[in-house]
Structure formats: C-alpha cells, structure tokens
Amino acid sequence: MFGKGKSKRHLNIGEDLFIDIIPVSLFKTNCVIIKDLSANDVALFDPGAEGELILEEIKKFGDFNLKYIFATHAHLDHIGHVGFFKEKFPDAKFLLHEGDLFFLTENPFSRFAKRIKAYPCPMPDEFIKDGDKIKMGKLEFEIIHTPGHSPGSVCIYEPDVKIVLTGDTLFRGSAGRTDLIFGNEEQLKISIRKLLSRLSDDTTVLPGHFDISTIGEERRHNSFINKIYNENASCPLHDSF
Ligand SMILES: [Zn+2]
Ligand SMILES: [Zn+2]
C-alpha cells in the first residue's frame, strides 16, 4: 500500500558529495541525507520517522555539522522525527513553507503519531518561500513552491548537482494525492507545469516516496503529467500521504 519496501540507497552524484536515501516507517517516506564533504555540513530532508537509524547513517560519514532540516511539506510522515533531531542538534535550522503551518498547529494526522513514534514537531526556525536560495558549502538549494498536495509543499532544487527533491508533489510515474485536507488538484497541475518549465531532462528526481527518476523520464512516462496535457488520459492515484 505504501510502496514496495525499497531499501536505502547511496547515490554517486557530484564530487565531494554524499547522498543517501532512507525509506522510513510503514509509509516508506524517503528521508534524504546530503553531506557536502568539503565543509562537513549535512542537510537532512523529511526525517519522518526512525530518527536513530537516520542518525546512525549520518554518523557513517564521519564528523558532521547538521546544518539544515528541510521539510518538503508538513504531513506527519515527513516531519515525525524533526523533533528528535532538534533535541540533539538545537543549532540545526528547521525550514518549512509557511503554507503548511496548519499541520503543526492542528496536527490533523495525529492518529498516525503512535505508529511512527512521532515527536512533537517544533516550530520552524525559518520559513522558506519560492525563490529562496539556501547555501551549504558549495551547494545552493533553490526553493520552488509547488502547492497542490498541500498548500506549503515545496520542491528543493540544486542546479549544479542537478537534483530535485520533489516531496509528494511528483513521484516516479505519478503525483501526490490531492484528496487530503487542503489538497488541490488544479494547483498541483499548475505546480507540475512550473517544475517542468524550470528543470531540464537530466535532473535527477528524489521523490518523497518510491524510487528515484529523472525529469526526462517523467516528462515521457508520468501518467499524471500525461493527464495535465491530455484531459482524457487516466491516472491512478497514489495513496501515500
Ligand atoms: Zn508522504
Ligand atoms: Zn504528503
């Protein structure tokens, strides 16, 4: 139901760079670790659950400075263990788009909290918005606001390494569901058009669930993208949240 139980993987993209993808919890949310070896800085994306396991993985890279904790959006399976990391690394900056603040203040998915041993989520240290550029060593993460799956969903793009973390906006072969609270399919279509207009085919896609892909692959084979450009095409909905 929530993915195929893929195991963690290490990507060899770019020099001086470690990229690890760890699917966590029953939702198989892809937590991504990016370490810039030139500065020892680490950015963590969507630590939804299994904080101890993620931490062990980061430690394998040696000394590190956890600089940023990004959330692509604030559904519980993506932010469930942000609190774990903020407790251990209070200087790490937790970054989220303001559009998803509702999920922290109202916690509409609290019924899942026990199942992923979620920590109370701290308030973001800073809000991120469309066009922001966040530097870490040689890397510069660009924020692309892509509402639709949730109001504050963002994609995070690194133009030199050519990777984009798409959260639950764009998956391999499909897109995020829009039937959850504040989901909006029309917005999601606009957001995906925006992504496609910005990113080249050779950009590697690191989605919030399921396997990695490229923008080119998705342009050709993604059934939701097909539906955007051809209203008669059908598209199976993913049930990840
Ligand atoms: Zn998700
Ligand atoms: Zn989601």
Architecture blueprint of SSEs:
Blueprint: E1 9-11, E2 17-24, E3 29-36, E4 41-45, H1 51-59, E5 65-70, H2 76-79, H3 82-88, E6 93-96, H4 101-106, E7 126-127, E8 133-136, E9 139-145, E10 154-158, E11 163-167, E12 170-171, E13 174-175, H5 185-198, E14 204-207, E15 213-214, H6 215-221, H7 223-229
Parallel strand pairs: 4-5, 5-6, 6-7, 11-14
Antiparallel strand pairs: 1-2, 2-3, 3-4, 8-9, 9-10, 10-11, 12-13, 14-15
Residues 73, 75, 149, 168, 176, 241 line the site of one zinc ion (ZN).
Summarize the structure in words.
There is one protein chain. This protein has 241 residues and is α/β, with parallel strands linked by helices. It has a single domain (9-229), classed as Ribonuclease Z/Hydroxyacylglutathione hydrolase-like (Metallo-beta-lactamase, Chain A, 4-Layer Sandwich). The chain has seven helices and 15 strands. It has helices spanning 51-59, 76-79, 82-88, 101-106, 185-198, 215-221, 223-229, and strands at 9-11, 17-24, 29-36, 41-45, 65-70, 93-96, 126-127, 133-136, 139-145, 154-158, 163-167, 170-171, 174-175, 204-207, 213-214. The chain has a seven-stranded mixed β-sheet, with helices on one face. The longest helix is centred in the last third of the chain and has 14 residues, at 185-198. The chain is globular and about 50 Å long. The termini are close together. Mean pLDDT is 93; it is low at 1-5. The protein binds zinc ion (2 copies). Residues 73, 75, 149, 168, 176, 241 line the site of one zinc ion (ZN).
